[in-house]
Design the sequence.
């Protein structure tokens, strides 16, 4: 087995990755399958952190568009990410993986508060750290939270797990002739308006020279392959 080319990674997962065939919520079998994929990475000795969205439960931006006050809607969305983090933590511990959840909003009876040095210490001790509740502030997405946390813990890269094989020049679900990029620069992503992450997250990655690998998480074993540095998906970096 080849050793991972990275020492420390942050994986960004969408809340929808936990739904399975359901229309919303959390499917226990899907979460357990995801936990087995993460456990395989953990077994290599790689230091791994996770950020999970909350779109399978609640989307603050959509609720705001429907008339809910934006700050309240975003706070509800942050709580949804905490629920997802606890579900994944339970599944990981069932696989024997030591795990800690840290939240940007204090809720001591459920999880630790986010403390950067403590998070790094957990990673050094071989624990998977799940960052929840976004940045703790409204108007910021979990993409931005993932980028911020990745920089704070000194991650070598961000892996963004999606349902498609990488970044395309247009939506492959609508356009059969869509072309996938093997590599693309952050500047091109911004200039072309490609829906990889929100523009704030992309700009932060670009300013801090933090590589982003976008890959298809629905294929079993792809997470481990991505963590090994195998060529797959699309790499977004300062210079393509």
Sequence:
């Amino acid at each position: 087995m080849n050793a991972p080319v990275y020492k420390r990674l942050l994986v960004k997962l969408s809340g929808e990755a936990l739904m399975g065939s359901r229309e919303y919520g959390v499917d226990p079998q899907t979460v357990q399958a995801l936990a087995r994929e993460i456990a395989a990475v953990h077994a290599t000795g790689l230091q791994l952190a996770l950020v999970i969205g909350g779109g399978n439960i609640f989307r603050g931006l959509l609720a705001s568009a429907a008339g809910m006050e934006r700050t309240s809607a975003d706070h509800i969305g942050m709580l949804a990410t905490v629920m997802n983090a606890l579900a994944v933590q339970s599944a990981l511990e069932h696989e024997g993986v030591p795990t800690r959840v840290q939240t940007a909003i204090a809720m001591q009876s459920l999880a630790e508060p986010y403390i950067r040095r403590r998070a790094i210490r957990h990673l050094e001790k071989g624990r998977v750290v799940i960052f929840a509740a976004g940045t703790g502030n409204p108007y910021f997405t979990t993409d931005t939270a993932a980028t911020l946390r990745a920089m704070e813990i000194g991650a070598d890269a961000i892996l963004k797990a999606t349902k498609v094989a990488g970044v395309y020049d247009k939506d492959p679900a609508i356009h059969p002739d869509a072309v996938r990029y093997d590599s693309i620069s952050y500047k091109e992503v911004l200039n072309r308006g490609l829906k990889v992450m929100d523009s704030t997250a992309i700009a932060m990655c670009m300013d801090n020279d933090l590589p982003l690998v976008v890959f298809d998480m629905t294929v079993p074993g792809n997470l481990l392959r991505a963590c090994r540095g195998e060529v797959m998906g699309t790499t977004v970096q300062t210079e393509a």
